[in-house]
Amino acid sequence: MLERELEPAPPETFALGERAREPEIQAPQLSPNAASGDVARAAFARSAESIVRYDAKLRLQPDETTIHQTRVAVRRLRSDLRAFLPLLEQTWALDLRARLSWLQDGLSAARDADVLIAGLKRQSRRLPDADRLRLDTLLVPFAAARTAACERVHEMLHEPAYARLLQDIVDAANHPPLTALASEPACDVVPSIIDGAWSTLRKRVRKSSRPPSDRELHGIRIAAKRVRYAAEAVEPVAGRPVRSLARRVAAMQTTLGEQHDAVVACRALRELTGEHAFLAGELAVLEVLAGQKARESWRTAWRKARRAHRRFFR
Predict the structure, then answer these.
(1) CB atoms near residue 313 (< 10 Å)
(2) Sign of the CA dihedral running 77, 87, 94, 22
(3) Which of 29, 35, 110, 305 could pair with 149 in a Cys bridge, judged by C-beta atoms 3.0 to 4.6 Å apart?
(4) CA geometry: angle at 40 spanning 164 and 77, to 5°?
(5) Is residue 5 very low, low, confident or very high in pLDDT (cuts 50, 70, 90)?
(6) What is the pTM of this model?
(7) CB distance 229 to 79 below 8 Å
(8) Whole-angstrom Cα distance, residue 134 to residue 87?
């Protein structure tokens, strides 16, 4: 884990002015009668607040929690920009999504390394003591990759492009360019927001092979995450039915996430040779078993999510 001495904010950070220290993000108060544009702004504000809050921590010490929470906020904001696209000026929204992808990719490299290392440590508890004691040496190349990824994140945070992006994230929370549809009551627009994300998920499930490939399952997981984020964004005005949908889709996403993590771990372990080959093989077997378990249960989670979706549209 990287540790850094306290350093002054770089010059480009002051492009944010006072917001670099305490951003003025004004999230609208939502009621059942809120306008759809206010729901979008509230969703943007939640992500923007998280991104700005974790900015200083990322600069000083990019620990596992900070990297994870920042990436979640960036992903959620990109997902919300997509879900609420009918309410937004499209060129602006698509440009901001593309620029957020740059930040997300940098964070993902570090986060993926954290997930891999944590997963292998967890699986190693099932190994004989003699093999488990050799785990630290096996993890050396993965830890080095994690360090390099964190160094890259640190470099990104000092680029002028990041300072501009941070300013635009705050502006998106406060003053997103809205269309006329944004003035319509949220209760009239929310069903189409949910159904747009749900339609993508349903299509990916229906078109997947039997059994689905690892790539197809990963695509289904991404679509499930978008449904969850959309449902959580509109929950303040949609209430219990959409809350149930978010919970069921989150369970599906978790199961598919376990399957994906197992696939990634097996791929990484397969590249190890020499003195680590035997231990890597033991861990790979455990990862294969974990992936198979997730494969056997994800359709059950899908059926529960589908029932929750039907209840929402009654």
Answers:
(1) 11
(2) negative
(3) 110
(4) 45
(5) very low
(6) 0.87
(7) yes
(8) 55
Closest-CA residue to 127 (of 253, 16, 15, 279): 279
Residue 15 predicted with pLDDT over 50: no
Q: Pick the closest to residue 287 from 268, 266, 272 (CA basis).
A: 266
Q: Which two tokens stand for residue 296?
A: 């056997």
Cα dihedral 64, 65, 67, 71 sign: positive
pLDDT of residue 2: 36
Judgement on whether residues 285 and 247 belong to the same structural domain of the protein: yes
Residue 301's CB is within 10 A of a number of other CB atoms, namely 20
Are the C-beta atoms of residues 294 and 251 closer than 8 Å to each other?
no
* Cβ–Cβ < 8 Å for 207, 219: no
Phi, psi (degrees; rounded to nearest 5) at 4: -130, 150
Token pair in block for residue 273: 């040779």
Task: Quickly tell me which residue has 């994300």 as its tokens.
Answer: 197
Residue 243 belongs to some domain of the structure: yes
**Selection from 169, 218, 229 nearest residue 196 by Cα:** 229
Which of 144, 175, 206 is the endpoint of a domain?
Answer: 175
Query: What's the chain's Rg over C-alpha atoms?
Result: 21
Task: Tell me the CATH number at 139.
Answer: 1.40.20.10
Contact 279, 131 (CB under 8 A): yes
Residue range 257-281: mean pLDDT, rounded: 95
Model confidence over 63-81: pLDDT tens digits? 899 999 999 999 999 999 9
Q: Are 41 and 171 in contact (CB under 8 A)?
A: no
Q: Are residues 256 and 238 in the same domain?
A: yes
Domain range holding 232?
185-314
Same-domain status, 228 and 295: yes
First to last CA, the chain: 50
Q: Read off the DSSP letter of residue 183.
A: G
Domain boundary among 150, 175, 200: 175
| Residue 271: both structure tokens together | 């590249």
307 contact partners, CB below 8 Å, separation of at least 6: 248
